[in-house]
Amino acid sequence: MSDLSVGVGQSSNKDSFEAGQGAASEALSKHRGTPAVLIVFAAMRFDHRQLLAGITSVAGDVPMVGGTTAGEISTSGFSTQSVVIMALSSDQLGFATGIALNMSQDEEACSAALVDDIRKKRPFTEALSLLVFPNGMGGDGVKVIEGLHSVLGTGFEIAGGYLGDDERFENTFQYYNGRVYRNAIAGLLVCKEKGFRTGIGVRSGFESIGNRFYCTESDGNIAKRFDEERALDLYKEFLGEDRSRRLPGICLEYPFGLIDEKVSIGGKEYFQLRCGLAVDHEKGTLTLAASIPEGSAITLTTASRGGIINGARLAAEQAKNSLQGAKPEAILMFSCVGRKLVLGRRVQEEVDAVKKILGEDVPLIGFYTYGEIGPIDKMERELAITKFHNETVVLWVLGSRQD
Length: 403
Prior knowledge:
Blueprint: E1 5-11, H1 16-29, E2 37-42, H2 48-59, E3 64-68, E4 72-74, E5 77-79, E6 83-89, E7 93-100, H3 107-119, E8 127-134, H4 141-152, E9 158-161, E10 173-176, E11 179-182, E12 185-192, E13 196-203, E14 207-208, E15 213-219, E16 222-226, E17 229-230, H5 231-239, H6 241-244, E18 256-265, E19 268-274, E20 276-280, E21 285-288, E22 297-302, H7 305-322, E23 327-336, H8 337-343, H9 347-358, E24 364-369, E25 372-375, E26 386-389, E27 393-400
Parallel strand pairs: 2-3, 8-9, 23-24
Antiparallel strand pairs: 1-6, 2-6, 3-10, 4-5, 4-24, 7-12, 8-12, 9-25, 10-11, 13-27, 14-22, 15-16, 15-22, 16-17, 16-21, 18-19, 18-22, 20-21, 23-27, 25-26
Helix pairs in contact: 1-2, 3-4, 7-9
């Protein structure tokens, strides 16, 4: 029998200290004993030092990891201007938190430094997963993952989400052991002693609008030319005059699909989604959340509200299947801010779709992100390598084995 104890708390109190205190009190009241770790996600509107002080006034020096969001998710559903907390512990699991600074200066070096920091506290042997929460405005998201792969190998299970700032697209904050950081990567290593499995689901619901073109010039995450035309000019041509007036915000509704020629899902061509974050009308360039390598085949994509909700359902089914019979005990949900914007008033339905598949009462925490991290399919060897995603929902599920 699993000895995992999980408690989730949420607060929308206007006072930052009291919000942290209230959410932590609720989480600990639902948790048996002293937690091994706290996962904390919160809106930008808080005084973050006061928020964490409120949490530590209840939880003491329990290790903590998390950061700011573009919308919060908990067992009770979707919320904004709130803080959500998950408290976790188990004698059969090991946890270790870490932090690495100066992400925007060198994303790969920062990722490697995160691993080094965690290794000082716990070896990576018998690890289930590494959960990472990078600065969502800190540069090329792909380089973060490449840095992790360079020290852990491509077979290591990694999931997480790029932290947000309530759609300001300026800067985000990271939480680590009761302190507030900027331009960093926070991480949590989950290690198995026995009795647990993880499930991961990764799906979007976005579909190609039928076109295909190629990136003919790029510099990191700055797209300069598509099919030898200025990237922004070609994008505007696809969008049309009316939609182009809404740049760069419209990028979240019409992301680029980086076509993976080796992968198909359900007989359809698979693509990793890339959102534009900024445009330079003078230079004709697009700054993306992650790089599109030169020579890559690309398609423009979009999604209906129903398609996005169905994507969440498919991700939940995939996560459940990858548990291989283990019972869902805790869920972390990372969904792109672009999905939230498209869903509008129906955003709660995405959370409901996940809960319907994985369990209405299973403790759940998460946030709306500036990028998602996870493998396309952890059950297929060639698809189990962690990737960077946009406009996607990534579910990480901790399950107790029943055998």
